[in-house]
Amino acid sequence: MSKDDFFNITNLYPKRLSRKSEEYNEKVSQLEKYYLSNPKPSTKDKMSISHKIGMDLKKVKNWFQNKNAKERKKLEQRRNSLSCETYSSDSNDRTASQIFPSCNELYKRRDKFNKEY
Question: How many domains does the chain have?
């Protein structure tokens, strides 16, 4: 090993895939397929997936964790929007924003609301 090879750090680390590369998009599409069949795979499944598609195990774990978090967030937003739409047509004295704090900023206006009643 020559002195130049010793100090050449680029050889030590694998090439990082750009998000725009075709190879990266192919790997993500394979992860999506696995996700549709099993959104929460076991560690053994993640290891086999990472080996099959050629990604690090950490990246595969992180991808599934992020994907599940995104899905939970989408589901929560859908629930909140449905509850807001359902109760926004009520003709009571209290509006939907007062009943459902997720629909509006009731927590920021809590003191004002409590003083009125």
Answer: 1
